[in-house]
Design goal:
Blueprint: H1 2-31, E1 33-35, E2 37-38, E3 41-57, E4 60-64, E5 71-75, E6 82-83, E7 88-93, H2 95-131, H3 136-171, E8 174-176, E9 181-186, H4 189-192, E10 201-206, E11 211-218, H5 219-222, E12 230-235, E13 238-250, E14 255-257, E15 267-276, E16 288-304, E17 309-311, E18 314-321, E19 324-329, E20 331-335, E21 339-344, E22 352-353, E23 366-368
Parallel strand pairs: 1-23
Antiparallel strand pairs: 2-22, 3-11, 3-16, 4-10, 5-7, 6-9, 7-8, 9-10, 11-15, 12-13, 12-16, 13-15, 14-15, 16-21, 17-18, 18-19, 20-21
Length: 369
């Protein structure tokens, strides 16, 4: 009887112990922090350089009054006209050139008559010398006529060169278009008062179907940007609208920027030119444009930026390994608003805690949601 009681007591104690151990185990399990995990994900990483610039016509010709050409006799085009390369635009009248051309023509005729007369005298003396070769007086006259004839030929050549120069100047009185485009401006007031308005253009021609953007980049950015890099264009004037472009020119020579302005102020800046690729850009020349240049685009392994924690210059993540937290130092590169490129430290199989908190520590037991 006593033995039965002992066995019963022992059995009850064992049961109670198992219950206590189970409760402790459950309490321990319930105390584990639940975490959400993520893994490396391939993402297209884009590196860009931001600057700004001014919208301009890709091709334009501006014609100013040229006093040495004379007076503007006629403007041959109207504002809004479409012109081709070589189309006459302006004709000058220059009476002084006309007078000089007439004088040159008379001088040239006189010089040619003189040459002809000297040639005939030369021929006569040549005939006389054939019959009297030893006549010293005839020989002296021959040499003198020959010299005069050579000088007359030189005078004719000089007058001929002068004639060609005058003709070039007269041809320049007709100003022609150097490009194909649209006549954007015709300033008739220059014709009326040209002496007082020399700095104002008479005619301005441009190609409205092709725009460029001129701006500046820093010396650091000039090492990353290349001709042909794609560009995204936008303007504060037209929100929520973008256009495409391409880097078409980067200057090899810097330019000193005196005051704050394009791309962040003074210092050494390099001129850059962007060709607008999009058609029908609804902005006018002179508008300020925001320029975003893509310098690199590649596929990379990324993690959410919230999974990274920093300790000084060291970046690390927390990996869940067999229910325990393990700290891993990682290499990082380009970051966006939501993700960051991981270069080393974790593999595609690692389960990385998505959101870092101060409560998560190395070696802690955790459970995965």
């Amino acid at each position: 009887m006593k033995k039965k009681k002992v066995f019963v007591i022992i059995f009850i104690v064992l049961i109670a112990g198992l219950i206590i151990v189970g409760n402790i185990w459950n309490a321990s399990a319930d105390s584990k922090i639940e975490v959400e995990v993520t893994q490396l994900e391939e993402e297209t990483i884009t590196e860009t350089v931001m600057t700004s610039g001014q919208l301009k016509l890709a091709e334009q010709q501006t014609i100013y009054y040229t006093p040495e050409n004379g007076e503007v006799e006629e403007i041959l085009v109207n504002e809004g006209d479409q012109v081709e390369s070589g189309t006459p635009l302006i004709f000058y009248e220059n009476t002084q050139l006309d007078l000089e051309q007439d004088q040159n023509e008379l001088q040239l005729q006189s010089a040619n008559l003189k040459v002809n007369d000297l040639r005939k005298q030369h021929e006569v003396i040549d005939d006389l010398l054939r019959d009297d070769e030893k006549n010293e007086q005839l020989q002296a006259e021959h040499d003198n006529i020959k010299l005069q004839e050579q000088q007359a030929y030189i005078e004719v050549e000089q007058l001929q060169l002068q004639k060609e120069s005058l003709q070039d100047q007269i041809n320049d009185l007709e100003i022609k278009s150097e490009i194909a485009g649209k006549v954007l401006e015709v300033n008739d007031q220059v014709v009326v008062g040209s002496n007082q308005m020399e700095q104002q253009p008479i005619i301005r021609i441009g190609t409205l179907d092709q725009m460029i953007i001129e701006g500046f980049i820093s010396e650091y950015d000039s090492l990353k940007i290349e001709e042909g890099n794609p560009v995204t264009l936008s303007s504060d004037t037209v929100p929520n609208q973008t256009w495409e472009g391409e880097v078409s020119f980067i200057s090899d020579l810097p330019k000193e920027i005196e005051s704050s302005g394009t791309n962040g102020g003074g210092g050494v800046q390099y001129p850059i030119e962007i060709t607008v690729a999009s058609e029908n850009i609804n902005l006018k020349p002179g508008f300020q444009i925001i320029v975003e240049i893509t310098t690199d685009e590649r596929i990379a392994n990324t993690l959410p930026i919230t999974s990274i924690k920093q300790n000084g210059q060291t970046n690390y993540v927390h990996v869940v390994n067999n229910g325990k937290v393990e700290s891993r130092e990682v290499g990082v590169n380009t970051a966006s608003k939501e993700s960051i490129e991981i270069t080393d430290g974790v593999t595609n199989e690692d389960l990385v805690i998505k959101d870092q908190t101060d409560t998560i520590e190395d070696g802690m037991d955790v459970s995965i949601k």
